[in-house]
Amino acid sequence: MSAPIALSCGEPAGIGPEIAVKAWQALRADCPFFWVGDPTHLPPGTPFREISGPAEANAVCAAAFPVLPHRFAAPARPGEADPRNAGDVIRVIERCVELVRSGEASALCTAPIHKKALIDGAGFAYPGHTEFLAALGGVEHVVMMLVGAGLRVVPATIHIALEDVPRRLTPALLERVIMLTAAGLRENFAIAAPRIAVAGLNPHAGEGGAMGRQEIEWIAPLLERLRREGMDVLGPLPADTMFHTRARAGYDAAVCMYHDQALIPVKTLAFDSGVNVTLGLPFLRTSPDHGTAFDIAGKGIAEAGSLIAALELARDMARRRAGQS
């Protein structure tokens, strides 16, 4: 049996603890994982069992929620992040990465963090979770892939203002994103010859230069060069016609130019089950496609569908990498 998945606790004042338990209740032995965090932060009545190492999780998971304990500095009050816990949130992530890189865990699934609490409590120096994981993995470039409802999308630029996109979007960046996407499809999804659709930057992909010239001046020439080098890339395509059912059947992943261009289609099709996959890391990482949801934390109403999908996708990718079906 393969190694279990490590699930980091994330921000303990958010919905992470309760959806972790809901995910275990739904999956149990079908997708063995263990949760790294403080068991006192779990919902009252959770049938958990502390384990001393990941190897115990497979046997425990069918009957109890496996917890690799990490004691935090302060209690968790739903909806109110405590900066005193910031250092422990960070250390849990570091610990999980160590377990995956050592082979004791097959993949990492991360619950949402709250960046302001980490900055206030521990001087967190990274723009977000993904950049921190890249630093821990010793890599400079990673990309975010959103997966759901049979669609895979990758934004070339992410959390920047729309007015900054044309300046930040360069031929070198776009080529790197396309190459990382192709490698991720081969390694994690067992797609030997990936088909990648690339959106245009401007409406109607520039409409022959009438609505912008980036497509003519460098996006189309870049894609043509990649095609000559043997890659199966389509585009640049008008983004408004890339995501209907018939169009989606023609590619394995879509590379988009900015955040909303990529996330609107996947969140429309898979709002409660979308998964964030980080490509380019030296280990497997997935996460649910939502935040800490402080407004509903502790109320027992948080949906666990995205976390369940993230755990299942991590399991499936780990099996593919191990050569299992």
Automatic annotation (TrEMBL):
GO terms for biological process: pyridoxal phosphate biosynthetic process; pyridoxine biosynthetic process. Binds 1 divalent metal cation per subunit. Can use ions such as Zn(2+), Mg(2+) or Co(2+). It comes from the Bacteria. Gene3D superfamilies: Isopropylmalate Dehydrogenase (3.40.718.10). Substrate binds at H129, T130, K267, N276, R285. PANTHER family: 4-HYDROXYTHREONINE-4-PHOSPHATE DEHYDROGENASE, D-THREONATE 4-PHOSPHATE DEHYDROGENASE. Belongs to the PdxA family. This is 4-hydroxythreonine-4-phosphate dehydrogenase. It comes from Pontibaca methylaminivorans.
